[in-house]
User: Fold this.
Amino acid sequence: MTDHRPGGSPAEPAALHLRAELRERRRTGMRKFMHTTLLLAGEVTGAGGPSVADLVVVRRATSTPVIRTKAGTLDEADALLRTINEDLARLSVEEFLDEWGHLRP
Assistant:
């Protein structure tokens, strides 16, 4: 099924204008130590842990962030990135922002 704009022309997929990436959350000193400890404990026990990265959607032309959210554990980050990329390929920019815009930076 092809999405159409009100004028009748096919909508361009958001992936032509936006891209999603995982960005490491920068920590130093005690915060880095605590994060690493919690992450390892969560992975060992299977209880999960703190977010390993931020998922950021940026404009391709300017690299300006449009959406930013904590990506979660390694498994959650992978699943979130996959879902976002599928929606970028399937939806127009307007539809994508309607769906995911609540995560704006």
